[in-house]
């Protein structure tokens, strides 16, 4: 398609319009802008929302880990959480491995 546009917009031999000189650069900038607004920006927003949700977790909340383990938070430290998965069975997991709270999953 660009070849067709270039052929149609091509000036007579020896002369090039100002648009033709910068056409490639403008097209590349447009592609980068589209890529940013359709892929990068939404992913960054999603990551911020997940991080905010992880920071809001407190003792007693039900959560699901990235490995699919359901449990209730018993203790929250700076980088880890102690999760009770059954009566008397507790595991310590990294905060980054918390996928979502159980309430978020049930509402989807």
Describe the protein's architecture and organization.
- The protein is of the alpha+beta class and 108 residues long.
- The chain is built from three helices and five strands; from the N terminus they run ααβββββα.
- The protein is rod-shaped, with a radius of gyration of 26 Å.
Strand content: 25-35%
Strand count, sense and closure of the main sheet? 5 strands, antiparallel
State the low-pLDDT regions, or none: none
Gyration radius, to the nearest Å? Answer: 26 Å
Q: What is the end-to-end distance?
A: 42 Å
> What series of H and E elements makes up the topology?
HHEEEEEH
Percent range for helical residues? 40-55%
Number of helices: 3
How would the global form be characterised?
Answer: rod-shaped
Give me the oligomer status: single chain
- Total beta strands: 5
What structural class results from the helix and strand content? alpha+beta
Mean pLDDT comes to: 84
Strand order of the largest sheet: 4-3-2-1-5
Essential attributes:
49% helix, rod-shaped, five-stranded antiparallel β-sheet, 108 residues, single chain, 3 helices, 5 strands, alpha+beta
